[in-house]
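queue> pop job 88
queue> type: inverse folding (structure -> sequence)
queue> payload:
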């Protein structure tokens, strides 16, 4: 006899039809298969594979939509709602969103995932059979991770954060590489579940990667130049800042050091985009 457990797949027989769906059975216990959970035609007496969960009315329910996320089975799940004081809800592919409790989320609320972020989770079930999401632990990630090749050195790589700590952020890529970003290698701490792209700065002996989110100097200068140009556009092409401006004023307005500001100005002047005059910086009209 097939055991019926929430959060897992079961093979059950179609017992009888009702106005709102079918009842399935393992010859000892009946489970509702609502019409909204049917993905293809079925017949009385047929055995079908279904996913078991407790619905919003606390009824034991079956779904022919088989999610990749199950008890002890990990996959990515998209965040569909953030609810302060409770946690975040994720979509695993059935007609009920699953809660990841705030107890499992970072203490700092600005590091909570946002809608559209994805969490690497499995399911857990309480005594009443209600399901919740469980974040993958470091041990689980290590077991699932693939060894990264040395050829990835200095290459760009994408992944999602699965753990955020003061020392840095931990990332799992979609192709299964485990990465670490030290806090000194990130300009801004990424959220849990956020997709990030960084540069591989070390391939470790265990096959994991160290990644930096800080652009190379020329890439950073390009971004700084873009910041200055956007500001100039907003001020009709002139601003009361130059390479002689106070470092504090520059930091407050542009969020960059005076050295970075001067390098970016120098690049724009060399390219003939701007010029300086009497402590002001102006965009050239032909730009």
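queue> result:
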């Amino acid at each position: 006899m097939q055991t019926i457990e929430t959060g897992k797949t079961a093979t059950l027989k179609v017992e009888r039809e009702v106005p709102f769906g079918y009842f399935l059975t393992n010859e000892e216990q009946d489970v509702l298969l609502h019409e909204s959970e049917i993905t293809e035609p079925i017949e009385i007496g047929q055995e079908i594979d279904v996913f078991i969960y407790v619905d919003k009315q606390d009824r034991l329910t079956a779904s022919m939509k088989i999610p990749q996320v199950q008890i002890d089975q990990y996959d990515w799940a998209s965040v569909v709602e953030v609810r302060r004081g409770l946690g975040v809800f994720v979509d695993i592919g059935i007609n009920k969103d699953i809660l990841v409790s705030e107890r499992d989320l970072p203490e700092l609320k600005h590091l909570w995932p946002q809608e559209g972020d994805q969490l690497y989770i499995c399911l857990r079930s309480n005594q009443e059979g209600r399901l919740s999401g469980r974040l993958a632990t470091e041990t689980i990630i290590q077991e699932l991770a693939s060894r990264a090749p040395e050829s990835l050195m200095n290459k760009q790589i994408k992944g999602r954060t699965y753990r955020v700590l003061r020392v840095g952020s931990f990332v799992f890529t979609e192709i299964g590489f485990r990465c670490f970003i030290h806090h000194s290698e990130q300009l801004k701490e990424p959220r849990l579940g956020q997709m990030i792209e960084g540069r591989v700065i070390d391939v470790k002996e265990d096959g994991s990667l160290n990644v930096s989110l800080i652009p190379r100097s020329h890439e950073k200068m390009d971004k700084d130049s873009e910041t200055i140009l956007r500001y100039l556009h907003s001020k009709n092409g002139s601003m009361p800042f130059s390479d002689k401006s106070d470092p504090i004023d520059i930091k407050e307005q542009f969020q960059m050091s005076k050295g970075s500001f001067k390098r970016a100005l120098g690049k724009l002047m060399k390219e003939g985009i701007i010029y300086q005059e009497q402590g002001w910086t102006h965009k050239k009209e032909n730009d």
